[in-house]
Amino acid sequence: SSDVVVAVLDMGILYSMSDSSKRHPDFAGRVLPGYDFILEPQRAGDGDGRDADPYDPLPAGQFHGTHVAGTIGAASNNGVGVAGVDWNAKILPIRVLGADGGTLADIVAGLEWAVGSSVAGAPINPNPADVINLSLGGPGGCIETWQTALDFVSASAVVVVAAGNSNQNVSSFAPANCAGVITVGATDRAGDRSWFSNYGSRIDVMAPGGDLGEDLD
User: Fold this and answer.
1) Are 172 and 137 in contact (CB under 8 A)?
2) Confidence (pLDDT) at 44
3) What pairing do the DSSP bridges indicate for beta strands 35-36 and 90-95?
């Protein structure tokens, strides 16, 4: 449904809010006004701190947010790019990761903004998310800051979190090990667990995540 809003908290996407020449064609007509919540200019890599354009200027990050947003909702049956799993939903890009990752404070601000909550210095988001995608995280327990933020946003949105790519038990990685989220691991072409995917009883569902092999046929 075009009424569904999926927030992608990541490195931003290749769809500029301010420059129409920097817009990936697979997202045309699908992107809602997002926000860049990276506070430190050096980490942001776009010349400033927080601003209203979540465009990703960091090719060294391999445009991870664009990849994720494309998997979720790239236009289908248009002869270009890839096909997303939902060709009607709207994408709400929220930039929280820059050079060398991101801070928990920036991520929490992005989470709160995603569901329409007030965040100092930013306008209210007029398109609250129905689904929040977090393809991010790292080693550690689910500390109180993480859980409090997730409890707050999960009251109004479904929160989906990547299990991680360290080939370890997901119980040692946050926010995948937090409560109230759907934790997703990765499968390869054969439908088996991708060699890099985290594993364990905390994972709720597995989904295609690829591998480094090559299909030679």
Assistant:
1) no
2) 95
3) parallel
Kindly compute the dihedral angle of the four CA atoms of residues 83, 86, 87, 88, in this order, to the nearest 10 degrees. Answer: -170
Query: Could you tell me if 34 and 54 are in contact, meaning their C-beta atoms sit under 8 angstroms apart?
Result: yes
Closest CA to 27 of 67, 68, 70: 70
| DSSP states of the chain | -TT-EEEEEES-BSB-SS-TTSB-GGGTTTBPP-EE----HHHH-SSSSSBS--B---GGGTTHHHHHHHHHH---SSSSS---S-SSSEEEEEE--BTTB--HHHHHHHHHHHTT---TTS---SS--SEEEE---EES---HHHHHHHHHHHTTSEEEEE--SSSSBGGGEETTTSTTSEEEEEE-TTSSBPTT--BSTT--EEEE---S-----
The model's pLDDT over 138-169, given as tens digits with 9 standing for 90+, comes to 999 999 999 999 999 999 999 999 999 999 99
Tell me whether strands 205-208 and 182-187 are parallel, antiparallel or unpaired.
parallel
Query: What tokens does 64 get?
Result: 């991870």
| pTM as predicted | 0.95
In 3D, which of 42, 138, 128, 26 has the Cα closest to residue 87? 26
Instruction: List pLDDT tens digits, range 116-131.
Output: 999 999 999 999 999 9
Measured distance CA(151)–CA(30) in Å, rounded: 28
CA atoms within a 13 Å half-sphere pointing along the CA-CB vector of 22? 14
